[in-house]
Amino acid sequence: LLTMAVTKKKPSVQKQILQYLDDRGIKQMWLVKKSGISQPHISNILSERVLLTQENLDKINSVLGTDFTME
Fold first, then answer.
1. With the C-alpha atoms ordered 61, 67, 68, 71, is the resulting torsion angle positive or negative?
2. What's this model's pTM, rounded to 2 decimal places?
3. DSSP assignment letter at 47
4. Cβ partners under 8 Å of residue 31, min gap 6
5. Would you write out the chain's pLDDT as a tens digit for each of its 71 residues?
6. Nearest to 21, CA basis, from 12, 11, 33, 30
């Protein structure tokens, strides 16, 4: 019998941010207002339709008081 180790892939930083917002009941519009990033762009970032830049990640971390990092 061959047993393979199953490794769980860490969720993307975008998914981690979405989970953080959801766990705390924080709306994307609140993040928009506090970060200065437009609503369509926040939506596109969090749904992974556009790349998350370090600059925008820094803004999000600053607003949320988090230290999410890109891998």
1. positive
2. 0.85
3. T
4. 21, 37, 42, 60, 63, 64
5. 566 666 678 899 999 999 999 999 999 999 999 999 999 999 999 999 999 999 999 999 999 999 999 87
6. 30
